[in-house]
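Dear V.,

Thank you for sending over the compound details. I've combined the ligand you provided, NAP, with the protein sequence from our construct and run the structure prediction for the complex. I'm sharing the raw inputs here so there's no ambiguity about protonation or stereochemistry in the SMILES, which I know was a concern on your side last time.
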Amino acid sequence: MTRYGLIGKPLSHSFSQRYFNDKFKREGLRDHRYDLFELDDIAQLPQLFDDAPDLRGLNVTVPFKQSVIPYLHEVDALSAAVGAVNTIRIVDGRLTGHNTDVEGFRRTLLPMLHGAKPRALVLGSGGASRAVAYVLKESGIKFRVVSRERSRGDMTYDLLEPIVVDVCRLIINTTPLGMHPETKALPPLPYDAIGSHHTLIDLVYNPAQTAFLREGSLRGAATANGLHMLHAQADASWSLWNS
Ligand SMILES: NC(=O)c1ccc[n+]([C@@H]2O[C@H](COP(=O)([O-])OP(=O)(O)OC[C@H]3O[C@@H](n4cnc5c(N)ncnc54)[C@H](OP(=O)(O)O)[C@@H]3O)[C@@H](O)[C@H]2O)c1
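Below is the predicted structure of the protein with NAP bound, written out as structure tokens.
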């Protein structure tokens, strides 16, 4: 058996297992499977490798994309620059960290911008936020990271005056707020400052329309959820595992 999987907590929202197992079925890879490994703490990772020696690759999700790095033998140049890992390649017991969220987000963002470079707000400062920031920087888009803690971002939510939201026409939610099963939660923004010139992207894809995207849609904003990114980052992980 050739095994792959996802580590994180919680994992009940994730579509990754279905995506990969459907792919293995379609491609006749009967000896391949993809499992969910919910870990309470990243310190449980070495035990997972002892228990599952046939693992060939892992995806990493909330909240371990940064804390997993010390457990790896090496990280590639991109994940070192981003400071987060969402894909681990395992060859002869050696663990290498990669970041395919960058490619996934790039494929979501660029077709929505049509060459424009709007000022942006990135909500949240975790692992996915770093991949988003990397793509915004390489695209020449000016942005600010909004965090609950001043020390982790450029500003806190209470400083988000309507004028700031009005000027920042691209808003990206990288927090888990609104993710299944807490579907009523949404980032605390002055939503009335959002209008038809805005583009809202939510990295959450379950549910398909989060409360954040609904508020934008109601006011005429263009919106996208994280499903396209999920598929693009999964395909990029698969290419890495087979390279
Ligand atoms: N579609 C995709 O392919 C894709 C890819 C990556 C991630 N995601 C989704 O993106 C989300 C974040 O993933 P991640 O790996 O970056 O997680 P993470 O490393 O835990 O970071 C999430 C960040 O969100 C903020 N946050 C957490 N709880 C919050 C709360 N209750 N209220 C306000 N802010 C909160 C925190 O930033 P502050 O402490 O600075 O506020 C935290 O650092 C998850 O829902 C994940 O499923 C989707």
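A first observation: Helices lie at 16-26, 45-51, 77-82, 101-113, 127-138, 162-167, 211-218, 227-241.

Warm regards,
I. M.
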